[in-house]
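Key idea: predict the complex, not the pieces.
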Amino acid sequence: MSRIYNFSAGPSALPEEVLAQARDEMLEYGASGMSVMEMSHRGKDFMHIAARMKTDFIELMQAPSHYQVLFLQAGATAQFAMIPHNLLAGRTVASYVNTGSWSSSAIKEAAKYCRVHLAASAEADKFTRIPEPAGWDISADSAYLHYTSNETINGVEFDFIPESGGLPLVCDMSSNILSRPVDVSRFGLIYAGAQKNMGPAGVTVVIVREDLLGHARPDTPAVFDYALQAKSESMLNTPPTYNWYLLGLVLQWLKRQGGVAAIEQVNIAKAQKLYQAIDSSSLYSNPVHKNCRSRMNVPFVLRDAALDAEFLSKAEANGLSGLQGHRSVGGMRASIYNAMPEAGVDALIAFMAEFERTH
Amino acid sequence: MSRIYNFSAGPSALPEEVLAQARDEMLEYGASGMSVMEMSHRGKDFMHIAARMKTDFIELMQAPSHYQVLFLQAGATAQFAMIPHNLLAGRTVASYVNTGSWSSSAIKEAAKYCRVHLAASAEADKFTRIPEPAGWDISADSAYLHYTSNETINGVEFDFIPESGGLPLVCDMSSNILSRPVDVSRFGLIYAGAQKNMGPAGVTVVIVREDLLGHARPDTPAVFDYALQAKSESMLNTPPTYNWYLLGLVLQWLKRQGGVAAIEQVNIAKAQKLYQAIDSSSLYSNPVHKNCRSRMNVPFVLRDAALDAEFLSKAEANGLSGLQGHRSVGGMRASIYNAMPEAGVDALIAFMAEFERTH
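Result:
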């Protein structure tokens, strides 16, 4: 047996040294005499793990002190409802930008709670680009402006932070958080599931500006109330303790890599060489406008879809896993988050070239 | 270093052989070439893990086929809101039994969505007993009757399933699920956080009778809608995959112990000897009526609270951890869930006797 290169879109590859540390500490963490997953979340050993994880996250994100950082459950899908529950604050409209599958889901859920004003949409372009900001129509009476910084299915990514015309800017960063530096102070709220760049599934991180707290609808479920969660240090209910621990290990690993600015350079290098391989080939293609291409999720199609099955099975045989595109679009997709080593991308490119040579 | 006996109320001790298996499979699960926590939740390896976990759970609970079993997030605290969201079905009142801290929390949350009718309360008895069923006043126009089968803080437990007068019976079994056989067919809905008897924190199990699905309030968040979760096999959003896997390992372990009926006998033996040690002592006492005493959480106080600190530090030095009572009631508490071996209870009893002899 040996470990393979895993290009899954999420849950996805984790740094091997993180897994090795988790393995070594599984039965006994330090001098605690127990596994992290057995610890009381109120005990001093776990409180220390939680505090370090949070401190490391704030440091890596460079989140200013007037932001609260929460570690919640139930994924970005829960946030799609929590955001209107907490941020409408009596308003009846919110502006959304539609750049693909994830923003569409956010819009659909928000429509249960308010009128959704579509500030921009790339649907007419089949989600192959980010709508030009000059053409955005942001409704001034909106409670906030929401967008998705990276779309995993079509592989489009914002290479800029949009102007929100004074509205709180809300961003789903699930699939590119910690992959590039971000000026948190430009945002009202950032949220992200952990299972792509930060750790195993089961934790959702929320960074929210303090002045936006405390305005939840009266019927907001307690676990959905950012203010209550902030007040209880995200321990309103028992947190997924082991997931917090693993998230913490990934953050420590990222710091050892030099932090977000350093990993961004690796991410740029990985993405550039993979897109270059696709663009210079006559077998593979990617339809996304070049300045909107995702560094995290690289979808591509083969000239002839009849070759897909053979491509996937040969890739698997070569230790390259998880390359099947999302069922809604077909084709291939290589997700190359922070934890994918450059050697994995090199191995994929070499395999693609060899497959092209023989077909 | 060596493992200690961990009497935490939750998260709590796990079977050592479960942890050892998780350790051994951490970097590579079977022939997959990856950790379980790196797997796509839609991939065949994880789908197999998920299916086996669910099958084992249904088998252990002997859940009839007209029940759906869901694996959700955000703990029992989320269920406190989800239950009225889904089960009110147009009614405006629900009946609740108050037996302590957890049922009080359920009542407080439900009151956001309906009028809560208090069918019975043990508050006047300081939650030292389960209210006699003969005195319950169940409101017939209620959407359901809710109770908490075990209260972790005061250590009271139902030794019977209440009659609900035809209403769907809803039960929070977070702290005693799988510790004794239960006739699921008596219930409309059973829910339980995993972090006491089933695995690490981060999963909440819901067993719900199918006819109760499909009546959610129109503004129910998608992740809160049981019918949507059932339709998507609890994968409406990315599930906490590693937590599911660990839950599955605990279920396999429980089957190896002989299942629920067999572990119940161990639980009875552990609880009996611990209560006997308390009752026959002049230093320790437990105020709960004998037929209402919890087999899972055994709170006790020392004759003189000034001895508490010394008791706890000496216990810790003897490899007995997590014995401090809940901060709301003080004193001591030994949580002795399924995974606590009988030898752990024996060690605690021996320590208590020695402490009494010298004080």
